[in-house]
Protein: DsrE/DsrF/DrsH-like family protein
Organism: Pseudogemmatithrix spongiicola
Amino acid sequence: MSPEFTQGQGAAATMEPQPITKVSIIVSKGWLDGVYPALIMANGARMEGIEANVFFTFFGMDAINKARHDAIKVATVGNPGLHLMTWLGGVPGMSALVTRQMMKQMEKLDIPPIPEFLELIADSGGKLYACKASVEMFGLTKDDFIPQVEDIITVGEFYAMAAGGQIIFT
């Protein structure tokens, strides 16, 4: 979208807001608080009639990996958002405990688990893609991913798909 400018008083110009019609979301983190923001944003976009493409790269691909997508945890070591003392995050079982607590809170808000959320997004017309370079780096194939993954694409293909829309990195 090219912004439209209107001439105001004097030399000042103002940009008229344009509606968002397309978002392309990049997911690079494979922990709960790296995956859920992207899924919530993609789902929200689809609910508003906005085209949504979700590009999973590096450890973010765990969200679409059949063997891992239902076991994603909260990263407790080095996660300043948890407000835990550094050593406490490394205590055995802490990640599982924090993940359980977070999942209980999300369940109260009717936020679905990751596998269900991915299916919901795909069923609503959102598109899910895996990063070709990351797939090759980790020795994966399309068979490793959930059936809702449209394709394995290059970064260039992602940029072409994202053209004219907003790119969001979570």
Observations:
- Residues 76 and 156 are 34 Å apart (CA to CA).
